[in-house]
Amino acid sequence: MVDGEETRAKAGAAARPRGRPRSFDRETALEKALMAFWEHGYEATSVSDLTRVMGIGAPSLYAAFGDKRALFQEVVISYGTRYGSFADRALAEEPTARTAVERLLREAAAAYTAPGRPHGCLVLHAATNCSSPEVEASLRERRRADLAAFESRTKADIEAGVLPAGTNATAFARHTGAVLQGMSQQARDGASREELEALAEIAMAIWPRTRTHTG
Known about the structure:
This protein is mainly α. The protein folds into two domains: 3-14 and 22-80, Arc Repressor Mutant, subunit A (Orthogonal Bundle); 83-204, Tetracycline Repressor, domain 2 (Orthogonal Bundle), CATH 1.10.357. 70% of the residues lie in helices and 0% in strands. It is built from eleven helices and no strands.
């Protein structure tokens, strides 16, 4: 949608009488937008594409969600809750950084190739060829936060003596991030769950074995 069309649609939304009930289910529309962004990325998904898949007009989209960027930010939050929370769970629930990374890579192989939905990671795919500085910066910060979480978990094990003192927590965090990014792209290129699980197993081979303490 060109700028003039978008401006007119926003004006139409603003002119709508207040209190008018919505004729669509907001959560259903949000999920449809999520799938569109997941499949095509941020840049390639136009407002016209969104209104078509969501089954609503542009004025309704702007009235309910704001502009395309605001809708996308809401989509990213919803994606993280519904589809991308496996990494946070692994880091929170596993006893060591090694077992946490092993679990999250294994679960990524399943999540990135699940049938009935786009493959790969929405957050990673949406950043491709993105011309919006605000969206690009937001996605970059999410990726950096993931790396920081991996690094923090690894440092905690080093300090506790679970991992050797010379372990490079930053390098291991970046290795984990790079493997996840590669798995996401390979899933979009058609790699199977079994192929990604084999990749994850090889990726874990570089990790030092955790130390156990007795007594």
